[in-house]
Amino acid sequence: MANLKIEIPDEILSALKLPIKERDAELRKELALSLYQRGALPLGKARALAGMDLWSFEDLLGRRHIKRHYTEEDLKEDIKYGRGN
Known about the structure:
Distance between the termini: 17 Å
Oligomer: single chain
């Protein structure tokens, strides 16, 4: 598994108005939402990046008014996931 580390300057982190213990999870959610909205990640991968279950991520998309993209590739991924592959 490859890991990507993003360095965020201390002055940015200190300006971030989130509790320290919530920062990682919230930043992952924001990145996942942004990449999904741009079409750079399919739903399943964005959900995984956000660390959320499908229904919670779908709810978050709705609350943020982010239009759901559902391609044939997304359907294949959902079927694969549903089969446990």
